[in-house]
Amino acid sequence: MPDKYPPLRPKVARFVEEYLVDFKGGDAYQRAGYAPRGKQASTSASRLLSRPDVQAAVAAGQELISERTGLTQDWVRDRLRLEAEGKLDGSTATSRVAALSWLGKHYKMFVDRVEVDDVTQHSDQQLNERLAQLLAKTGVSTAIGGEGSS
To answer: How far apart are CA 44 and CA 139, in angstroms?
Structure first.
């Protein structure tokens, strides 16, 4: 079966190799031989990493590393679970809490950011109703729209 993408240019391929070292785009961009100015390295690296062919090359590289090292997501999750349960030698309360934290983050059990809907998909009335619901939860009362609003 033919590859979905043509081969990467040598400098882009080098960028992928360098990116797989530490996953620091700006540093990888410079190590690959690009000559950025100022903060341009991170911006240019981000642009490269948004390309589907580069994303595919990074994914393929990660898979090779995983196969070579035997480190898979399953293995890491299993070890974190064992640590969280205190089943590993030398387990401490601190290490158990850290393992639980990592597992919780992995499974998105904690909200680190607020998910925002595309407000352009809602009518003004729907948005006002939702705002009123949120304000009611916080105990703030205010008139929204209509008479009495400023």
So the answer is: 46
Q: Which pTM was predicted?
A: 0.59
d(CA 34, CA 78): 40
Token pair for residue 128?
């006002």
Contact between 28 and 21 (Cβ < 8 Å)? yes
Residues 6+ apart with CB under 8 A from 149: 142, 143
Place of tokens 């903060």: 39
Q: How many C-beta atoms surround the C-beta of residue 94 within 10 A? A: 8
pLDDT digit of tens for each residue in the chain (150 aa)?
A: 347 889 999 999 999 999 999 999 999 999 999 987 777 999 999 999 999 999 999 999 999 999 999 998 899 999 999 999 999 999 999 999 999 999 998 888 886 666 676 777 888 888 888 888 888 887 766 655 544 444
